[in-house]
Hints:
Helices cover 40% and strands 12% of the residues. It is of the alpha/beta class.
Amino acid sequence: MFATLLGPLPRPPLAPNASDLELVEAAVRAQEAAGLEPITDGGLQNAQSPLDRWLAMAGITERAAKQDMVGPFTRARGGVAAAVLEEADAINADLRTLAAAGCPLIEIHEPAAIEIGKGEAARRLFRDAQHRLLDGVDGTHLSLAIIGGNADETGIETLLSARYASLAVDLIAGPENWRLVVATPGDRGIVCGVLSPEADSDDSHEVLLWAAAYAASTARRGPARVGLATAGSLSALPWETAVAKMRRLGEAARLADLPSEELRRSIDPRAVDIRSAALGRVGPHPRRSRQRRPGR
């Protein structure tokens, strides 16, 4: 199991005149220390081309580095069909360049997909745009990311009609996206956006691991095709808070790789035994039980 970011980071606490490359290196080192992979540039060098962004990031780390891009349906949000398809063709050129350069994973963000719903015309346009977007892009893992709300009404047959190898979904702002997880074929990966971008959220290992275990159980997917992620941008947080959240994410991914019995001893077993928990067969973890106060 792996852990990664689905959105940008806040600016690292470097000098005001720090270069983009210095900011990116700080973001990369923080992700490495937290145990995240694939690595992102934290959205800290947006003025560069996608290829230049990826090359700069890949030159800093030995870990797999992914490149995220906004998809055509979102870029041309509210535009006519011709504008959406024109964007798809333009982005396709960037994707081909990235793939040819050796980028191992390209993540297409389409938050506007939450607005499609059951409208057949919008569904058809989304499908057409994604097919044109991915046309001829080979030799890289292509992932579709949807954050910011529920896209379950759009349907998995629309969202994954193009040859995406994995689907990343926000399960905090879009809890109904669990329906998409269940409907996703088992040969496709799932990235669970379950670490909230809110500063005071419940980031317990049990919450994160329950999500990972459930996603792995769907369609016989298995843990090798499941990742944990942030549910969107951490850019509004203080740097120290964002770093703490990244560490929590990395810790959960490492725990998920433990043998079952060792994992049960480390956390509340209900987080890893979904069926027993649902049937009420698992009692509270001893460390989670309320302690009796002295004198009672």
